[in-house]
Amino acid sequence: MTLSVTEVSAPAKRFLATLLPLALLAAPLPLAAQPANSVADDLPLEEIQTFAEVFERIKRGYVEEVDDRTLLRNAMRGMLNELDPHSAYLDEEEYQSLRESAQGEFGGIGIEVGTQNGQLMVVTPIDDTPASRAGLLSQDIIVAIDGTPTDSLSLQEAVNLMRGEPGTPLRLTILRSGEESPREFTLTREVIRSESVKHETLEPGYGYLRISQFQSRTPEQARQAIERMMRDQPLEGLILDLRNNPGGVLQAAVGVTDLFLDEGLIVYTEGRLSDTEMSFSASPDTPAGDIPLVVLINSGSASAAEIVAGALQDQRRGVIMGTESFGKGSVQQIMPLGNGEGLKLTTALYYTPNGRSIQAQGIEPDVEVVRGRLEVAEGRREIREADLDGHLSSQDDMPPERAAMSQRLRDDYQLSEALNLLKALNVVDRRRG
Fold first, then answer.
1. Is 181 known to be catalytic?
2. Of 138, 301, 303, 416, which is the active-site residue?
3. What is the pLDDT of residues 231-264, one digit of tens each?
4. Is 344 designated active site?
5. 127, 325, 328, 412: the active-site residue
6. Annotated catalytic, 328?
7. 18, 21, 42, 44, 235 from 2: Cα distances, Å
8. What kind and span of H or E run contains 266?
């Protein structure tokens, strides 16, 4: 098809004369790299004409004067924002902000956000940040940021509003499921330096490994944590806690999964271009290959966390416990542009070893356990020796750290059930032996 400026309505001629040469030149991929069905496609004349006409009408009639640069930036943002919730056009400030996030240090409150049904939603609060300490929860709806309604903001604009100088206040209006009235939270921004791995011993022989997000050093930190717990005494069971883990670096998820597998596929990706198709498998070197394992997930477990849970589930390496995960199974590439700005573009989907797509599906736990806490039932209780007046005290009183751990297990029902399951698995194994 031959495109001619004379075929376009008069108000759009000037702009279209500029647009068409740019559109024809904007082909960064060689023809051989483009999908076969797109090579022969013609540029849609009618849509380009309409675009030019809208551009011209805004220029002439909008209540305030808008320069061409701003309109073109907005058009590019719109192209990407309408693709999916994760693709975005990044100006120089946004591009730098994203790079800071990947490096694990930025000024903010420590939450991962996304959109659902057009609403800004908390995917998960990051551990030990203002958001988690204030009590923000996964699936909270953010109605307003410092009084600015979020329904008029893009995802990136909302993130930019929440970030800022450490020490400055931020007011969020939150609507929580099951509550009729919004809540207001006032938080103070901090430098977010999230340590991604924590560990502790729940009981002798039973370890706890918490991964809050996947950073480049997470696999090595997780390996060191497992080795430290095993130095104290052999582990009879391990709980891997991926609840409220928003994901992170793909290679880090692969590295953590490899700590528990000595062979087999971990994850693969599929996209339209050949360089987006990748496959990752386990290596024989694993420090925790035969330790009984329970993996905790919930609706805040997303992306890389779902890769780990899905691989361990498909390879039957551990029991997945908790509630259904978030369901973000797409791969985003950050593409720098020549002007110092960038694109965040969804280019592929993740698949578990058995070929399950995580995208909009999530990981179903093997054992569903909802969030809660243990409560002692009121009523008659059996009398024990410790209740009798004048009873002899044990010389092995519970140390303070064990008492604190017992309280934690009562407060965290999912964690308590995971520990009980590990103990039960060991009882079964001993009887079989």
1. no
2. 303
3. 978 999 999 999 999 898 899 999 999 999 999 9
4. no
5. 328
6. yes
7. 16, 12, 9, 11, 72
8. strand 265-271
